Amino acid sequence: MLDIHVSSLPTLAHQISPLGAGPGALRLAKLAGGPAGATPLPIAPVPLDPPVRMALLPDVTLPALPALTELAIAAGCLSVGAALIVLERKGDIKRPGICVLMAAMVILVGLYHGMNSIGPVPYLLTALLAIATMTMGTLFWLNLPAMIEGPGPQRFAEAHATLQKEFDRRMTVKEDLRQAHEALQTAHSDLERRVVERTAALRDANTEMERFIHVASHDLRAPLRALMILPGWLRETIIAQHGTVHDDLELDLREMEVQSQRMERLLCDLRTHARLGQEADPPIDLDPAPLIRRAAAEVELPDSFTLELDTPLPRLNCPPNGLLLLMQIVLSNAVKHHHTGTGIIRVTASQQDGAVQLLVQDDGPGIAAEYREKIFDMLFTLQPRDDVEGSGMGLATARKCTALAGGTIHLCPTTDTTPGATFCITLPVSGASAPLPGCAKGVSSSQTPAEAIP
Length: 454
Hints:
The structure is a single chain. The protein has 11 helices and 8 strands. By secondary structure, the chain is an alpha+beta fold. It folds into 4 domains: about 5-60, no CATH class; about 65-145, no CATH class; about 165-275, Helix Hairpins (Orthogonal Bundle); about 275-454, Heat Shock Protein 90 (2-Layer Sandwich), CATH 3.30.565. The strands form 2 sheets. Strands 6-7-5-4-2-8 form a 6-stranded mixed β-sheet, covered by helices on one side. It has a two-stranded antiparallel ribbon with strand order 1-3. Helix 1 (about 10-15) packs antiparallel against helix 2 (about 25-30) and helix 10 (about 320-335) runs antiparallel to helix 11. Residues about 1-60 and about 435-454 have low confidence and may be disordered. This is histidine kinase. It catalyses: ATP + protein L-histidine = ADP + protein N-phospho-L-histidine. Keywords: Kinase, Membrane, Phosphoprotein, Transferase, Transmembrane, Transmembrane helix.
């Protein structure tokens, strides 16, 4: 407490009065015994001690300083609380609830100082704030070790060693993969080289075989003709010497003639098959209908068979001689294997997927499903040659013709509406240049009226 002697009050009032007639000046004047606002006595000023001047300075010069101080503390606490809430929302600490707890504690402290800057805070509210602050502070210190818990240098070293091992393992795997890729590329290149070499060797072998078949079939025809003439000479000699030929001997001579004719037909078909692709027959854009009619005329289609040809047919891009031979084989096959002496052969066409699909359908006995691919093998016949004459080279030659033209041929499955055999021939459409990968199986018919060719 400030201790000022009574005898010095007038002098003190005189010292304060120039600062203004405040409440302190009035009280000092009353203590000095004079009326309020009276002229101070002409007493010489007595200087105040420094402790007295410092004690009086806050009340006289800056009366709002405590309130501003409280507001500054409150603002700082509230800003720290807001910063802690933002840190908690980032979620990059181990226990984010600690930030909420600490933010609540700091905000309570800030609220207390903010209310204290306005006026005296009730003791009950002060006590409650104190209890809440102490509780939150205690909880904060209890949870602080778990919040700041982190790996030490040893754990960092172990983690680094583990990562280094994983990195080394992955680098080893990467190197192994690189070596495996290089080995695979080398094997792929070697395989391509071997495929090219073997393809060339196979092509050479096929060319050599076809050349051999062509030469052999040509050279064998000369002695074969002699064998075909020999039975007639024997017959003439026997008749000249004995006047007649015994029945058993006549049967043998006829069998020799039949077998010689079969041999000649086989040699001719082998020669035709071998010559395919060796002679000039470039693909051209053509109308297939005239070639189909010509094929029917050259195979001498019997009068008991009718060829129904849908017109107009889509134009094709294929070798003309190859198409003519192909249609001769298919039409002849339909007549030769028919179970009756009367039949109908229908040729339809449709254009789909950049190709023309020709369907040659007969009303014969059909072909069993297990022979649909085998009939295209060389020298294969469904019936004995004594029952049906044939060399077994017809459909094999037909498949080679379609392959050289860039198309395919296969036997369509039989249905209730197509009881006979239906050959599906797919050829490039007019204007096409690339060979076709295949054809879609199925039977399609044209909507145009059929042209009957007796």
